[in-house]
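ugh finaly. both done.
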Amino acid sequence: MIEQHPGSRPTLEAVAARAGVSRATASRVVNGGVGVRPPLADKVRRAVEELGYVPNHAARTLVTRRTGAVAVIIPEPEIRIFSDPFFSEQIRGISRELTAHDTQLVLLLVEGPGDYDRIARYLAGGHVDGALAFSLHTDDPLPAIARRTGMPTVYGGRPGWPVAPGEEPVPYVDADNRGGARRAVRHLLGLGRTRIAHIAGPRDQTSATDRLQGFHDVLPGAGLVEEGAFTAGSGARAMARLLDRCPDLDAVFAANDLMASGALRTLRERGRRVPEDVALVGFDDLRGVAETTDPPLTTVRQDIEGMGRLMARLLLRGPDAGTGIPPAPVITETALVVRASA
């Protein structure tokens, strides 16, 4: 019988001895293996609980070839990640899904080009089982890094980078950005507005270009467009440029809620009443933004937290199925939430 000294860390051998089974049997139960009769498995689990045994992570990784961790990569400045509620909502969804599968989230931030070498080394080092990446720009090197390291990866947002001939399409989760934008503009037209402007997001992100395309689907050739950066400040500046170009505009569709909130501030500073003089619609339905502006924003709702959960679910399903990640994209629905601003 193996003696367990007070204060020492319980070993797998001690668990096996307490349960009256071989070390190999105890290892199979602890590491989630199959082929152990239920009565013996129950004995091992009781021994684990009684002894307070915690598996050695390094040894377990050698056996299962799984680390139990997933990297979440966001190529945006740190200040934006921690100030934009979009990111916290998506990370919340990812975290909840990973937690439900006993998997650890490892957050990797990209402050500048030099960080990509560090991330490539980390992914190649086998520290995580897969990666989730969102808010990518069209020239982002992350997809190439994921391919080169062989890291299973699911993306948030429609890919904007070219896919080489014969290369498998990448798996991603996105909202119906184009359809949501069409819904927003049609709503403004239904209110009788005739001079409708658009504050677009960065042209190197597909969510922004899809929403711009949705705007033009309903208003072909409309030229009242100014570009922002998905931030409140950029929305305020874009709104000022639009008013300088067209002082009598009567409606604005902003490509996200933060830019809409900035536009609202500029409209108030210029003496324009919302929605009496200018109707305003955003996109996202962000918690802490859309309902707290004055007046509250009419906006296109996308399930940001739900998309985070779907990304994690796609990644986790791949290795379990043994066939890789399903390449088909997942496109979630959007809905117009009408509030006082339009």
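ok and the 2nd:
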Amino acid sequence: MSDTIEKVKCLIIGSGPAGYTAAIYAARANINPVLYQGQQPGGQLTTTNEVENFPGYPEGVTGPEMMVQLQEQAKRFGSDIRDGWATKVDFSGAIHKVWINDTIEIHAETVIISTGASAKYLGLESEQHYLKLGGGVSACAVCDGFFYRNQEVVIVGAGDSACEEAHYLSKLCKKVTMLVRSDKFRASKIMAERVQKTENIEILMHTETEEVLGDGQVVTGVRAKNRATGEVKEIPATGFFVAIGHKPNTDIFADYITLDETGYIVNVPGSSKTNVAGVFVAGDAADHVYRQAITAAGTGCMAALDAERYLAAKE
């Protein structure tokens, strides 16, 4: 064996609430976890300005601050937190092989995948500007809708998730304008009918976003174009929600781990186990339903406990 190969009991791939919680539990169980933070240390929450729905923070907390605190808590119990991300895996044998940054080879007895999912955005320069500033662009109505109470917002999307988020926002906001790019919803009939029947949701079909408008710091509106007529209009709004889907960060596992049709890892119901013994999953890499910090943290706990029991059974 090469001297460059490192052997570990528990390797955690990815950070965020799932990865850091797994590290906390694994470290307390003395299985010496090594965690690589991934390309976005802290995960999606590092792009969330305010978190007010995570238990234990009565005054709320910023996403980046919460991730720093979770990381420090994991370190306190001896977790080895490192920069870098997994670029290749080989789960074909009893020893799980993972390559970090294409250079470091790790042989792990157990692996916890907490690589999360990335929200899809339109890719507009103005959209990315206000997203980075935390100035009114969001991909999670449940996370951020509260901040737009009694205000006017715009949401983009045509699927079940977009309809669900639009309906959620309608309970909080004065008005919700829903932009649908084609002439029909992709959502199920019942979800489409729900938004169509909601009085304060205005649906603009054949409509795409040209630009997110603002004063440089916060969103003030959206410029949208009707693809059928060519008409361009400016819609006043303080919030711009994007609900065009998420992409799980699971591509490198596809040859070994069972994924569903959209790329989410399929776990054994009621556990964090995957189809590969000794490989577990936590957080949004397997969760396309809830996608909340608290549910990710819960599955991080499950994965660490499952990994600990797997190791104990081998002894």
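summary for the 2nd one i guess: The helical segments are 16-28, 63-76, 125-133, 141-144, 160-170, 189-196, 293-314.
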